[in-house]
């Protein structure tokens, strides 16, 4: 079990201290201004019992109800309600996400495969790519709908998370929940941690997109001036790439030139 799954009591606080903390657990999104009513990022958790109220990540419960952010789950049981990771909770009846009751997974065989969050540069926990499984296979948490989506054709027994973007099993490589076309999991590798370019023995990708005509002998990520930092630019002997979009070598150089000009103008104020 994740050591960070700890139920916390709500503290009285001044609004200026906590403010609107988004989904950053470390900034304590649940708080009280009067020791009676409870707020989640400024929105009241209606009818919450202050004395028995506790929270973990974006889930909460008191002696009467269970909650997702500031909204009550209608059917949840406080006595058996437990948090599984950043995205999921369960009780004796259902699996829950921040979106509500999860109806498309099998309750008995469902399990989370990670903690569901990543740590940002400031050391705060923020929502991250998350995988879970049941008897149907492996699920990934969709960023936008906040609903688990089945990764079709996955081998649950060999599935493994690679990093916060990629995973694989014995047959396929996946970007988030999407299969990389024709990628060989035995030879596939990410080219660096800063961009989403990757390759296997003879094919190159950006994210989930196959760069169909990339030349394997000359493909490289473009080295940029330090002032520009890391950009998703690459090239081979024939063309250049901005993300997965093909441009000419000249067009890429013009883009870099314009970005350097913009940086210099910012420095001048």
TrEMBL record:
InterPro entries: DKNYY. Pfam families: DKNYY. This is DKNYY domain-containing protein. It comes from Flavobacterium quisquiliarum.
